[in-house]
């Protein structure tokens, strides 16, 4: 049986690259933010990226309109052997990342890292994607603006609301 390949093109239908069904891409926005898209083959001209269906030309047009670039993910970036990095935001010499683990009790996490050093630190662990995404954005924004950010406020507020 032939392996299904997903084509990535520009808006003029010039082929950029292909990846196998279930492969991943890295999309880089003009401001340097990155996200990983897990892709599924739907048919010769349609793909699913992180649960959203696109025509291959529609996906190319969205990227071009936003000024984003796409490339195949060479090898998944992992943290602790369990969390796969799905998003990356660079701010100065720091990089903030979000990861997902299908086996962890808290399946989402964010970390701080440095561009020029290996490893991740200051992990924040979350039960849902929404809280992790918010944490990632707040961490990067705090670094950008020089303002402090206390990720425990969300838990403290939730506990106060639950006590009522």
Task: Characterise the protein shown here.
- With 164 residues, the protein is an alpha+beta fold.
- 24% of the residues lie in helices and 45% in strands.
- The chain has 3 helices and 12 strands.
- The chain has helices at residues 56-66, 129-145, 153-163; strands spanning 5-9, 15-20, 24-28, 34-43, 46-49, 52-55, 69-72, 78-79, 83-91, 94-100, 108-114, 117-126.
- Strands 3, 4, 5, 6, 7, 8, 9, 10, 11 and 12 form a 10-stranded antiparallel beta sheet that branches. Strands 1-2 form a two-stranded antiparallel sheet.
- Strand 9 and strand 10 (94-100) form a beta hairpin.
- The model has no long low-confidence stretch (mean pLDDT 89).
Q: Summarize this, please?
A:
The protein has 164 residues and is of the alpha+beta class. It has helices spanning 56-66, 129-145, 153-163; strands spanning 5-9, 15-20, 24-28, 34-43, 46-49, 52-55, 69-72, 78-79, 83-91, 94-100, 108-114, 117-126.
Could you outline the blueprint of secondary structure elements for this entry?
Elements: E1 5-9, E2 15-20, E3 24-28, E4 34-43, E5 46-49, E6 52-55, H1 56-66, E7 69-72, E8 78-79, E9 83-91, E10 94-100, E11 108-114, E12 117-126, H2 129-145, H3 153-163
Antiparallel strand pairs: 1-2, 3-4, 3-7, 4-5, 4-9, 5-6, 8-9, 9-10, 10-11, 11-12
